[in-house]
Write a structure and sequence with these properties.
Pathway: Nucleotide-sugar biosynthesis; UDP-alpha-D-glucuronate biosynthesis; UDP-alpha-D-glucuronate from UDP-alpha-D-glucose: step 1/1. One of its GO terms (biological process) is polysaccharide biosynthetic process. Belongs to the UDP-glucose/GDP-mannose dehydrogenase family. It is a single chain. The protein contains 18 helices and 14 strands. By secondary structure, it is an alpha/beta fold. Helix 1 packs across helix 3 and helix 9 crosses helix 11. The structure holds nicotinamide-adenine-dinucleotide (NAD). Nicotinamide-adenine-dinucleotide (NAD) binds next to helix 1 and helix 5.
Amino acid sequence: MKIAVVGTGYVGLVTGTCFAETGNTVTCVDIDQEKVKKLQNGKITIYEPGLEQLFERNIKQERLFFTTNLAEGIKDAKIIFLALPTPPGEDGSADLKYILKVASDLGPILSDYTVIIDKSTVPVGTADKVRDRIAANAKVEFDVVSNPEFLREGVAVEDFMKPDRVVIGTNSPRARKIMEALYAPYVRQGNPIIFMDERSAELTKYAANSFLATKITFMNEIANLCELVGADVDSVRRGVGTDSRIGKRFLFPGIGYGGSCFPKDVQALAKSASDVKYDFRILNAVMDVNEDQKTRLIERIKTHFKGNLKGKTIAFWGLSFKPHTDDIREAPSLYNIEALLSEGVTIRAHDPEAIENVKRIVGDKIGYFDTPYDAAEGADAIFIATEWPEFRTPDFEKLSGLLKSKVIFDGRNLYDLSNMKELGYTYFSIGREVIN
Ligand code: NAD
């Protein structure tokens, strides 16, 4: 099938590449000329494990193309995906200007029956708006389908190639048949394609992300309570997670959720609810708790250094919002860096993939280092913001020789408490005993 993907960011590039991988011919369209130029030259623009190999193979086999020209990109395409940004607007609702602009542009240039698919995360009712925009100028038949994306950055290729489920919102039998054929190679193991109406599909994505954000936030509150009552959140987590109704995943406490999806999607769902006069109280609480959780370790750092952080140096391990990605959108690291800088702390940062993206925002206000050990040299403490695997078993002996004082503030609970005690570290983590 000939497919166009409009918007070539994290979702668009993975979507385009993975559809090319099963034999479709895909053209990815983006207005960012620099990005498209790079992609046309065979240079990948994001870090996503496993993607580069597929990207290179499909370009070589002439199934994957890039352009800045929408009309050229959609020429002969039977299917057009919209993988465009839906950032929060001023009132917290999802800003649809990118989607609606492309929808308006598409109307006059469609030349045959086409299925236009919202892959972006969009509020209930967006498919109707997209349909109206296209219909205003279209001379041919078309269908608008809602097909929200559930991939996780860091394992996006795996998620796309073998999704837990595919959700498709459409009432059109014609579009349904095309969507079924398109996704058939990805659900061969029997995972379901769940068909529903467009509104339900749109809401499903927000419900999923908001539920996951709520689950993390609930565990963060349990962790905070553990600290006050002398319980251990790791034990509690194992105790509750083995209940199959609760499940083991998404129960790890930390310094709050971040990323390009959870914060904006929770906010947008709360706003959608309030638009129809429904006060979604849980979500308001989730947002409040998460806001505080992001900088929870800062109070501990201040107390440890007796309120005087001026002149201290902190090695900052991890900048991306989670491991295996270079994405730093809404990363808790950025909030902590800002808080520490405002206290006069010198920051020496290391991240395996995200340094270039952080440099664009934070610039030379902090130092950047190639290894976690280089970052630790001469530091008064280490702050761990992201659970990259390489931080899990560092050479503590080497580290002890580099640090000015053996203190770790761990926002991701990476280390065993008894081990830290044995090694003689002062160790603060989330929801667990302080080792001093
Ligand atoms: P992104 O910012 O990485 O990519 C969006 C791309 O769209 C950018 O490259 C931008 O230049 C391009 N663009 C903007 N206007 C355009 C136009 N008029 N024509 C062509 N291209 C245009 O965003 P993303 O992370 O890929 O997210 C896209 C959507 O998918 C959002 O709604 C997001 O909520 C949703 N989503 C994201 C993830 C994720 O993990 N990132 C997962 C599931 C769903």
